Amino acid sequence: MRIYYLLLALLLTTAASAQQNPQYSQYIFNSMSINPAYTGSKNVLNINAFHRSQWTGVEGSPSTQSLAVDGVMASDKLGLGLNLTRDELGAHSTTSAYANVAVKLQVSENAIFSLGLAPGLVQHTVDGSKFGIEDDPTIPTGKETSIKPDVKIGAYFHTRSFYAGFSGTDLLQFKDMDQVEPERHYFFTAGYVFDVSRFVKLKPSLLVKEDFHAPTSMDVNAFILLADRLWLGSSYRTSMNVFNDAEMGDVEKRTAVAFIGELQVMKQLRVGYSYDKMLNGYSNQSTHEVSVGYYFFRKKETKMLTPQYF
Q1: Residues 176-221: tens digit of each pLDDT
Q2: Residue 244 contacts by C-beta under 8 Å, 6 or more apart in sequence?
Q3: 3-state secondary structure of 302
Q4: What own/partner pairs with CB < 8 Å and gap ≥ 24 does 270-278 have?
Q5: What are the angstrom distances between the C-alpha of 3 and each of 7, 45, 54, 60, 120?
Q6: Rounded CA gap, 95 and 85, in Å?
Q7: Do the beta carbons of residue 223 and residue 232 sit within 8 Å?
Q8: Would you indicate the residue range of the signal peptide (predicted)?
Q9: Would you place residue 245 in the very low, low, confident or very high pLDDT band (cuts 50, 70, 90)?
Q10: Are the CB atoms for 218 and 54 separated by under 8 Å?
């Protein structure tokens, strides 16, 4: 079984380097990591940190940590932010830093349209010692590191009850590098908040992730908000062929369900947790994700535009 897990980790290391970005379940509470136009959308200084352990108990399984900070200036018309991420999978690790900027345009009394840009640096590292294989000239004996620039772009529109966004990541490609390049990824997000009662709100949402080479990834989400303090919901993640006819194995389908909750502990502090369960051939593997967020309000408090919702 140990050999099976090692081979699986090696396979996924190669696949992830070539096609996939780190996976998140709680992006619904802070979408800055996938769309720079989201930066500053809460109109306050906002800090969000999270840790994700995927397929716990499997040696070399994915592990991701992220820290995001964003706020507004220029009379709330300009959002600025910083996004730091470290992702590790087997012998391969990726560390990235992006500086986000978003221009916010008030298109109506309750609607804002934003355009975002996030230039950054990405460091890829392969630690050959973690393969446990000796006397193979194709495997590095120590760490090999490469650093490259990258950029993300995005657009984001939201009102008090609706939002939609489109973004692109990994847009700079360097095919002559020794390191396998991630494919360009494009994201579409949308959601709506329904008032069920005075104390209950319902928010269905959708995320579509596409690179035009692998099967299209889709998240269908449904959440309820209780008393403007507790989010409870679930996400169904699957893959399908939309722009190609590629054959999909169990790993490529990536069918999973996530159970997610976030509690507004107090006005400034919120804590979130998600539990992911795969529904394909790896259903015995579980994933845990925790997040902590904090708002720094101004002395003269500024009203946030639907802070609990989007």
Answers
A1: 655 566 789 999 999 999 999 999 999 999 999 998 888 888 999 9
A2: 212, 213, 215
A3: coil
A4: 270/29, 270/294, 272/26, 272/29, 272/50, 272/231, 274/25, 274/26, 276/25, 276/54, 278/254
A5: 6, 47, 19, 12, 37
A6: 6
A7: yes
A8: 1-18
A9: low
A10: no
Residue 183 is classified by DSSP as: P
Where helices occur in the chain by DSSP H, the ranges are 2-19, 250-253
Phi and psi, residue 184, nearest 5°: -65, 135
Per-residue tokens: 284: 């015995």
Closest C-alpha to 230, from 206, 200, 193: 200
Measured in residues, the chain has a length of: 310
Residue 23 corresponds to which amino acid? Q
Angle in degrees, CA 64, 82, 287, rounded to 5: 15
What pTM did the predictor assign?
0.86
Residue type, 261: G
What span, in angstroms and rounded, lies between the C-alpha atoms of 169 and 172? 9
With contact defined as beta carbons under 8 Å apart, do 278 and 255 qualify? Answer: yes
Cα 226 from Cα 248, distance rounded (Å): 39
